[in-house]
Amino acid sequence: MQxxxxxxxxxxxxxxxxxxxIVFSILYNEINIQEIHSKHTTHHVDxxxxxxxxxxxxxxxxxxxxxxxxxxxxxxPVPLDKSSSCHSTVKYSGKRAEWDSFKxxxxxxxxxxxxxxxxxxxxxxxxxxxxxxxxxxxxYMSDQLACHKHGRQDLKYQYWRWQPHYCNxxxxxxxxxxxxxxxxxxxxxxxxxxxxxxxxxxxxxQSVIPSDKKFMTPQAHxxxxxxxxYNASIEFLWAxxxxxSNSDDPVDHRLSERILRPDSLLRHSSEWMHADILVFNSYxxxxxxxxxxLWSNEENRVCEEIDGVGGMDLAMEAWANWVDTxxxxxxxxxxxxxxxxxxxxxxxxxxxxxxxxxxxxxxNGTYWGIDSDLSTMQMVERTLTRLGSKVNVLNITQxxxxxxxxxxxxxxxxxxxxxxxxxxxxxxxxxxxxxxxPGVPDIWNELLFQFL
Length: 452
Prior knowledge:
With 452 residues, the protein is an alpha/beta fold.
């Protein structure tokens, strides 16, 4: 009888210890789920740090993949921003994020169902059907693209229509386009050129929506135009390098040093993964000199320097693996090829100096500028080809090459004050990168309409 009470007192103590153990285990697991969850198997490290998706949702930005030449960290790296820096820089070692390889679908890149090549043709002056809207009628017009508002008097750039050689583009129909978008999210992802295409699409679409049924919600990272009666949205996501970088602030991104994580897409893909129609671009930002790679597993902030084309190759590889893993028949993905610039007038008018400043007509005849880098285009082509039918390509490069007249030049808002010396030489500060609206990006969207 004396031992019995002693035995009974042990059970509450054991239960208490067991209860503490369970609580500790639950808390430990919850913390790990929010950090990087590592599941070790032979020769593999499976990683998933996203609370937005399961392991199939994002294989590039901390998701299931095979890693052969580096070890992923258990603690998520500090996000890159404009204050990020490298403690030291070394030459690129050739290391790649070796995600589980995928096999391309049978056949080449997705071919458009129509037999006609809509990207081969000529510009036709047409002041009866174009422009498709007026600059002053679009309340969402950007001051960077509103050329007439900022002093451009010749308006011929607005009246050119793209005419394929052996067929016709479907006539633009805003109501039909809204029906295609009913219940869907159309998202443009990329840099300021893709933002220009987004603004073009909003200007093309907004006029038929009553003022109390349309809403624009600009945000730091994602801007959204929404049409309530169609339960549809047209959105723009700022992601100039596709992967995470220190230039991901859509306003304050003029940095002397570009730093990116070639193995991290989560910052952007967590937004774009929910869209129904995706329109990507990437090119211009890779032509601003070398970039620095800061891998997610690098703890000492040692960066590797690589040329722009090499950095783009790594970013495109990451993007392609996301597309391969996440795109199914319910989601449409488009990739817009490089938008050409016109900085060297001597290319289309031999012996001349200057650039796109004061150009009023398209280029006649076949033209290919040096700023449309063929080696980069070939790299992009290889990436898109192995994705097979999962990506549609909007090949806007050649048709846009002819439009030396379509850039803002000096007719835009400049965010920095221009000195008298610069004002005396307009060509010195002409914007020969972006495009006036209405203008060339409207044609890109007519092509998008053709293929949706």
